[in-house]
Amino acid sequence: MNLRLTWVQPEDLVGHELRQAAEDGRDARAIAARWQNAGGPPAPRTAGASGTPRPDLRPLADTLLTALADLPAPLSADEPTALPEIRALTTPAPRPSRGERGARRHRPP
Predict the structure, then answer these.
(1) Are 53 and 3 within 8 A, CB to CB?
(2) 71: number of CA atoms within 13 Å, CB side?
(3) Residue 81 to residue 97: CA distance in whole angstroms
(4) In this structure, are residues 10 and 65 in contact, taking their beta carbons and an 8 Å threshold?
(5) Where do the domains of the chain lie?
């Protein structure tokens, strides 16, 4: 039995990262063309590995993942990364009343 650890196989990550780049507004068209011209598969419809393992594409995948990480992200200025900034932009969840807190702690078996 073979087990594919997709999060450590660059050739399985490129398609996912290309999709994410497009969603982030990064222009990855040239990188996507290099991947497709080399026979790299698109991202699977759902999470996971590509249909057929392609370890022959690993060196190219490493290069392209680095290039994708280096692309400017136009939305990054709008996306806070420091925890205090993130908290400042979120709405705190309502606190449960005293009765609700007690009910949660002392649920019957």
Answers:
(1) no
(2) 23
(3) 32
(4) yes
(5) 6-76
Give this prediction's pTM.
0.65
What confidence score (pLDDT) does residue 68 get? 96
Question: What's the chain's average pLDDT?
Answer: 82
Give the ranges where the chain is alpha helix by DSSP (H). 10-24, 29-37, 58-70, 83-89, 98-105
Please tell me the distance from the alpha carbon of residue 80 to that of residue 21, in angstroms, as a whole number: 18
pLDDT of residue 43: 76
Residue 102 structure tokens: 């007690």
The per-residue pLDDT for 104 is 55
Q: Report which DSSP code applies to 43.
A: P
Supply 22's token pair: 């497009």
User: Would you tell me how many other CB atoms lie within 10 Å of the CB of residue 56?
Assistant: 11
Q: pLDDT tens-digit profile of 81-90?
A: 889 988 888 8
The tokens for 45 are 């419809």
The neighbour count for residue 97, using CB atoms within 10 Å, is: 9
End-to-end CA distance of the chain: 42
